[in-house]
Amino acid sequence: MRKVKDLTGPGITDRFGVGGTDLGVTALAPDGRLVSVFGDTFERAGVGGPGWRSPVVLFGDPTTVRSGIRWTGSAGARSHYAEQALDYEHDSVVRGRRVSTTIPTDVITIGDTMYLHVMVCEGIGNVHWTEVHRSTDNGETWHPTGATWPGDQHGGLFQVLTWELGEDGYVYAFSTGFQRDKGLVLQRVPADRVEDPGAWEGWGFRDGAWAWGNPPTIALTGAFGELCLRRVDGRWLLCCFDAGNYRIDVLNLDHPTSNLYEATRGTVLHGTSWDREDHGGGRIAQLYGGYIVPGSTLDDLHLVVSQWNTQRNWPYRAMQFAGSAPRPGCPPPGTGEPGEPRRGPGLLDLAREVARRFAG
Prior knowledge:
Blueprint: E1 2-6, E2 23-28, E3 34-38, E4 56-60, E5 71-74, E6 92-94, E7 97-99, E8 101-110, E9 113-121, E10 127-135, E11 143-150, E12 160-165, E13 170-176, E14 182-190, E15 201-206, E16 209-212, E17 220-232, E18 235-242, E19 247-253, E20 264-272, E21 283-285, E22 287-292, E23 301-308, E24 316-323, H1 347-358
Parallel strand pairs: 20-21
Antiparallel strand pairs: 1-24, 2-3, 3-4, 4-5, 6-7, 8-9, 9-10, 10-11, 12-13, 13-14, 14-15, 14-17, 15-16, 17-18, 18-19, 19-20, 22-23, 23-24
């Protein structure tokens, strides 16, 4: 993949009060705008300082995807200031638990309604619970649906989530833990019952066969982080941050229930060290994320990718990359660049940085 442009940072999103931010999971609103939801956001470049909020929403022009997303506005009552989309206070006590931040994992549009899945956290990797919020005004405002799950749901594998609507009326959701050391499980829920935790059912192996309604079984072992499942050109693409191998992979599937071990899979971006970066050649230091942009095709796949230099505290930004999706017959992905650490973007460093900057 090649870099298209930086999407956030000085000179790009200052007018929205966004200096440093990450993630940027994106969907089309019912009115056709791009809705991108970002994580921990600050007014200055980097992490820390004034204006801490999460999540925030920026709106984009869908006609600008090919050349690089152009932001047209932000969610919030104040004009051109991206306010926190959810009603809570950082470092407060909620339901008897200390909550430092709430992190978005994916957003989906079903009819005239948008749904946002988030993790309610106390620092990096420690998820108290997850929940779903609803917007009926194209992502301008968000309200809790009441759908919540404990952080240890399905053995802690229902924290980082991605979902997509199928033609059969079901929403399919892959998920993993927020520790970047777990595999993937699959669930589904009728599209009109997303807000009902009791309507979700697992894809699991029991009595010698895979079937719906079983407790979810790990469908792909590994050490995964951020995920993004989308239908593109009649295929199901699953983009995942493979933290164990320090890269971003894309799986090209017939269906979410396909055998993930046998599915076409290609590495589209490699992790590397800061002195060996080559954004034109798809080598990025401390990369994570990897969210498919609406309007992508198999031949022109666009991703929102994050980067955080935890030593210098900048860059801390979202970027747009473009390339092609893997096709059947692609060779299996390698293990990253020789000599590079086979891990994610310094998860322990991230945890220490968050503890230091967000404490108290």
